[in-house]
Amino acid sequence: MAGDTPGELTSSKASHGEGVLGLLKTMNRDEVFEALSQGFCQHCEAVLEKRINQILNKRGSETSLSNGDAGVASNVTPVPDLGTDRALTPAANFDILLNDGLGGTVVDNGLSEEQKEHIRFSQVGRKKDFVHTERVDGRPTNVLKGLELHTKVFNAKEQNRIVEYVYNLQRMGQKGQLRERTYTEPRKWMRGKGRVTIQFGCCYNYAVDKNGNPPGIIRDEEVDPLPQLFKQMIKRMVRWHILPPTCIPNSCIVNIYDEGDCIPPHIDHHDFLRPFCTVSFLTQCNILFGSSLKIVSPGEFSGTVSIPLPVGSVLILNGNGADIAKHCVPAVPGKRISITFRRMDDNKLPYQFSPDPELLRIKPLVVSPTVNSAPQGHHQKRIINSSFVKAIVQQNQHRNGQVSKDKSDRETAKTTKNDSFLGNDDFPPLGGNNDFPPLGKANKTGSRR
């Protein structure tokens, strides 16, 4: 372990088969705590954390069983194995409250919401060094400058909830339960044509419509406001330093692709400010960039740069990557959902638009320099420090001190946890009728196909 200097006492104890365990037995609790809180290398800290968590979790489970309430023990969430990379992947499915940084509730696995959020934040990969030089107006230009790719922003469980939410919105649109211009499902008359779109916050025209309105935001048309779940996604992206608090989105468009659907080459309209972002779900696909993209055949395009978009990732478009390079999505290989979040130019806001107060007070997460120390263009690696070990020990001591409370206290704690999970600042469970309060006036003409 880094920082250790073997001494005579250590050698003497080890020779009698006692080693570190023998030394620990001679120390009081405060001395043990001090010894375990400093001077370890990252690898040794990870091993130590793993063992502490396993012991505490086992002790908590055994205590619950000894109290005659096996049902409680079976519902205890295991402490995540923080000593392995696998425990810090999306498979870990940490749920965190998407609040404004005011959380702090201690949950069954001994981690507060703040601690879990910092773990999830440290997992996000951030690539910001995209470079591709083309001649633009006679000058060599990095047409990808301003692009950023943030991976592992939404874990597998959250992705499933978002996808099911989108499918429920699609069913609502098909039944005419959304405002008329909110939902569009064109007829699939050829390859690459017919992706479903659902837009919130503003009505956007891709081309001149039947009323002669030009491409851009139609200010006198109303669509449904941003759903609550999408606002939670925006909160996370601002809190996790993916989107700047100076450009918080107030509109979005959902694209639902079937296999073979695409988006042709384009530059996003300047009725929307920069940066904006696209979140990807269900199927990884490639997005093409270049100052000159060509249509090869229906749904097929050629470009100079192809960037893969992993599921759960967020692509930020800004600078040259948003204004000089065109982008397109060739025919996708399977079912795909993307959600593009954008902020409208204040001079283009719909006439009936009202700012959402919930999106006016989002504050970026405050992180220590060690947590956010990965250089630009490289994926951040898991960082565990001694203060985090200390926090886990303290939180688990607090938890295990409460295990002996009577059953009514445990039921109260369980109710409190459930109320917290179902709060307005979390991803709501999906699939029930109550998940989808009316978003606006129903389309009286029925579904639009």
From TrEMBL:
Top-level taxon of the source organism: Eukaryota
Basic and acidic residues bias (residue ranges): 404-417
PROSITE patterns registered for this protein in UniProt: FE2OG_OXY
GO MF term list: demethylase activity; kinase activity; mRNA binding
Any one GO BP annotation for this protein: mRNA catabolic process
Signal sequence region: none
Entries under InterPro entries matching the protein: AlkB-like, AlkB-like_sf, ALKBH9B/ALKBH10B-like, Oxoglu/Fe-dep_dioxygenase_dom
Region (Disordered): 396-449
Record domain Fe2OG dioxygenase: where: 248-345
Pfam family name, one: 2OG-FeII_Oxy_2
Family the entry assigns: Belongs to the alkB family.
Listed name of the protein: Phosphatidylinositol-4-phosphate 5-kinase family protein isoform 1
Lineage of source species: Eukaryota, Viridiplantae, Streptophyta, Embryophyta, Tracheophyta
